[in-house]
Design goal:
Length: about 270
């Protein structure tokens, strides 16, 4: 049996419909993403958005996101990016049944599990307060929940969050964007073993990237809004012009994790 998921990230909606990021009309691009997902010749079990739904925390940005994503034929699940606001997400976005919260409401994080075809999907929230910077950090509660699952359950699982866990070999990104406790996170995944761990999926880099380390697959989806250069010596965050609209199709089947990037001209 094959399980099909769509991985989407970093849509960066703004407070106006005409809002652009680096000249790219984000609403038009997100609508194209939804059209293409709905036109796929299979039914995805879920669409998972790994954060930066909005470019800045404006109510209207989340209202526009809800308007666009409510057209999806598959259920969509969100977690928080560094640009997002959890109370606004809760107020404006539609959430589906079957989400098991991993943190108390007071932690103000959007972290939970869903189960699809017997696979536990951990959808984690690594946002830190904005004044601390664009890097991430998984709370102790989330680390404990993940550890508890690895040690006491036997089923397969995968993880989705906004932030890279490991360095990617680009100076600015590695200094600014990863999870602060990414190594601890990695050790937990590693201890689960490759037989039951299907992959760790993230965004934030605004470009596709794969890392394979200790039998753990890390896979980043690019942004349909704008893409980073991520050169090895980049001292700052630079952007590529005229990037394609994109999302990833993840398939879990017979012990294989396949990630296929879909791109469309803008
Ligand atoms: Fe982003």
């Amino acid at each position: 049996m094959a399980t099909h998921l769509i991985h989407l990230s970093d849509t960066h909606f703004g407070p106006e419909r005409e809002f652009t990021v680096r000249g790219a009309p984000v609403l038009d691009r997100a609508r194209r993403v939804v059209e293409e997902i709905n036109a796929l010749p299979f039914q995805p079990a879920a669409v998972i958005h790994t954060g930066d739904i909005a470019n800045d925390p404006f109510d209207e940005a989340y209202r526009i996101a809800e308007e666009v994503f409510s057209d999806l034929n598959a259920p969509i699940y969100y977690t928080t990016g560094n640009h997002d606001d959890v109370p606004m997400m809760r107020e404006h976005l539609t959430f589906h049944n079957g989400m098991n919260p991993l943190v108390p409401e007071s932690e103000n994080r959007h972290a939970y599990t869903i189960e699809i075809d017997g696979i536990a999907l951990f959808i984690l929230d690594g946002k830190v307060p904005p004044e601390e910077g664009p890097h991430g950090n998984l709370s102790e509660t989330q680390i404990s929940a993940l550890t508890d699952f690895v040690e006491n359950e036997s089923g397969p699982f995968a993880v989705f969050n906004h932030f890279p866990a490991l360095p990617i070999g680009s100076k600015w990104i590695d200094n600014n964007l990863p999870l602060k406790n990414g190594r601890e996170f990695h050790e937990i995944l590693k201890s689960a073993g490759a037989d039951r761990f299907y992959g760790s999926f993230f965004g934030h880099l605004h470009r596709g990237l794969q890392i394979y380390h200790d039998n753990i697959l890390y896979s980043a989806v690019s942004s349909p809004a704008c893409q980073f250069t991520a050169g090895p010596n980049d001292e700052y965050c630079d952007f590529l012009p005229d990037v394609p609209i994109c999302f990833n199709h993840i398939t879990f089947a017979n012990g294989i994790t396949q990630v296929k990037e879909y791109t469309f001209p803008s």
